[in-house]
Design a protein that fits this description.
Layout (H helix, E strand, L loop, with lengths): L4 H6 L16 H6 L6 E6 L11 H9 L4 E6 L1
Parallel strand pairs: 1-2
């Protein structure tokens, strides 16, 4: 996954696993995060300056995983 290449180069000692899975967009990351130390999810920036507007996937992982969740805004 090309999007992860800069992070792997910047932090070569950090373990990083990329997985592509078919399934429900909200359920799949919740299931995949059962044995991870950190789950990183993106959220689109909407142009609104007030509030952290999250979508259904980010909302689901924030409420249903047992590990820390990093929500990273992107365009």
């Amino acid at each position: 996954m090309a999007a992860l290449r800069p992070w792997r180069e910047k932090n070569p000692a950090a373990p990083l696993t990329a997985t592509a899975t078919e399934g429900n967009a909200a359920d799949t990351p919740v299931q995949a995060a059962r044995d991870v130390g950190l789950l990183v999810v993106g959220r689109r920036t909407t142009g609104h300056r007030i509030g952290a507007h999250t979508g259904p996937v980010t909302h689901a992982v924030q409420h249903h995983v047992g590990c820390p969740v990093a929500v990273v805004p992107h365009d």
